[in-house]
Amino acid sequence: MTRSTSPAAGEDRSAPVPFTRTPPSAIYEMRTLSTAAELEEAAALVQDRERWLTLHGLPIPAHADIPARFRDAQRMSAGLFEDGRLLACMIPEHTPDIGWGQGPCLFLRHVHTLSGQPDDTSRLVTLWASDFAARHDLPVVRAETLARHALDAEPLAALLRRLTDTGWKVCGSGPGRDRDRVARLQLPAELRPGLRALISSQVRAPQPAPDSRSSA
């Protein structure tokens, strides 16, 4: 004897409504700095970072007023936030020809992180930059970090090791965009579809720089 599987009289024949979860918001947010308060906060972060570097005997730019560049509303700058707190700031540029390396790139200019933070902040910036470049059809990300001494001398060597561990490649050293001697860094662009769950991105697409070798 088999049991009937037909619904009993009066039973609700409607399909069950699937339960949908609201996707959780990202922990971090990368966004274009647009208000006067955000620009001033970025300038203050840079000033604090430069003081920290000086106290620890590390170099800071000799030929450029970096805080003033973040206060300039005409420049497109971006910041990494956690619960409204600024963890890092930078000036992303679409650079057709940086003067070293071949082809166009996303150039991360003046990357500064909040003093006293773990190395995870640099890793987050790396992940975002690689994905952001790929989404805007730029094959690589490039950046520079001050290098007053040989690349294998500490503490620069330790910094470069941490960066290479996150995917950056050191492309030698030489004059940087602001005329200081720098280590040249390059990172391949890579789409990371799952990254939005960690970092939401509200950064405008950078426009190609008219003269990528300008130090202004």
Describe, in plain words, how this protein is organized in 3D.
- The protein is of the alpha+beta class and 216 residues long.
- 24% of the residues lie in helices and 26% in strands.
- It has 4 helices and 8 strands, in the order E-H-H-E-E-E-H-E-H-E-E-E.
- It has helices spanning 36-55, 66-71, 120-135, 156-165; strands at 28-32, 78-82, 85-95, 105-113, 140-146, 169-175, 181-188, 199-202.
- The protein has an 8-stranded mixed β-sheet.
- The N and C termini lie far apart (88 Å).
- Residues 1-23 and 212-216 have low confidence and may be disordered.
| C-alpha-based Rg, rounded | 23 Å
Q: β content, as a range?
A: 25-35%
Number of helices: 4
Shape: globular
Distance N terminus to C terminus?
A: 88 Å
Order of helices and strands: EHHEEEHEHEEE
**Largest sheet descriptor:** 8 strands, mixed
Number of strands: 8
Unreliable stretches covering 5 or more consecutive residues = 1-23, 212-216
Structural class determined from secondary elements = alpha+beta
The residue fraction in helices comes out at 10-25%
Strand numbers in spatial order across the main sheet:
6-7-5-4-3-2-1-8
Mean pLDDT: 86
